[in-house]
């Protein structure tokens, strides 16, 4: 039994072509080296998706892990060195589900001092003084609570969920074609969550990165003046009906005084008026066409109405509630998978989401409403420490300092609004293992909507996660 447990997850190392790039390699190496230098009775637990094995299309079986090792030798060398000093344990997630399917993976990882436990969930004990029973930590990746990624037959390499085929068709393809894009942005497709955002993300990057600059120079003024066109059209109608006096919108002397700028403005307004007229003419038949096409696709089973790829954290909180109620000795429930780091307190029990080390993309609107939104990148490299402190269990959330990516173009940085601030994740949460269990009714939370907030040391947070965008100043272990 270790005296301290350190958790990380969702590194997603590996993948064809550009997906093999590891943006946080330097930070990961330093994190592992710091654990090695500190030593002690510590166990590092990587609770799923350490590797992106689904992202390989050209190799199968154990050869996928060999590719990861070949592509990231420095990481595996450091794992071997760190594993000589502390215990390192790895459980499979969905993206590295292959680890649960081939026994040789355990032997291969053991060569790097990494112990593979090919289980859906594991537990660890916390040695707390003066407590009846031994407090436990429940650890899982969480894919079994995701309808699109749960494994129908754990350990069977041929029993794959729908999420596997989505990754193979979309994510792997994006990685292989990423070098053809301007700025290599396509490889960040793994950072788009939920996956329903992918079409809007593609449109945004096409507009700001791939569109011909000459075409964009024409389109941008049209979009910027679209609202002015609507105002002009509305004002003209009011003038014609006599509600407003003539000359405010049509034949305005102030506008005419602009000279050539007036001519340019009139051309833009005229083009926009034509576009509005065409859209109004097509709106009704296109609505009927879309409705009929949707019904046809559903009839043939090509499209399923109501299915969502991104499910939020609700299913995982349901699972946490059931686990905590059924296992009174479990004081901390740890999961990953959703890439949304959080520490949520329920009475004297804590639910932890270990987040991700991948780049995060947050959609923000522009300063001009008609321009496509922008996906602002950031990193949230985090880890969680759980240890005993006299007769209590302590959960500490810490973030690794890192340079934030500057992947946006100059134009994007100029027009993007500032992302809304996130509630900080509590840096330290203390649990009395003999205390009460106040698990919220997550069914009621879903009905009440996002305003319902769980109790936490960090004050008011999101209803299901308390996600942090910025370091909390605690540094490295």
UniProtKB/TrEMBL annotation:
GO BP field: lipid A biosynthetic process
A single cellular component GO annotation: membrane
Keywords: Cell inner membrane, Cell membrane, Manganese, Membrane, Metal-binding, Transmembrane, Transmembrane helix
Gene Ontology MF annotations: metal ion binding; UDP-2,3-diacylglucosamine hydrolase activity
Transmembrane segments: 214-234, 263-289
Gene3D superfamilies the record matches: 3.60.21.10
Presence of keyword Transcription: no
Calcineurin-like phosphoesterase domain location: 6-145
Domain of life: Archaea
Residues covered by region (Disordered): 415-477
Basic and acidic residues composition-biased segments: 449-477
Name the UniProt record assigns to this protein: Calcineurin-like phosphoesterase domain-containing protein
Natural source organism: Natronorubrum texcoconense
